[in-house]
Amino acid sequence: MQSTRLEKINRLLQKELSEIFRLETAKTTGTLISVSHVRVSPDLSVARIHLSIFPSEQAQTIINNINRNTAAIRYDLAARVRHQLRRTPELNFYIDDSLDYIEHIDSLLHPQQNQNENS
Question: Would you place residue 100 in the very low, low, confident or very high pLDDT band (cuts 50, 70, 90)?
Answer without folding.
Answer: low
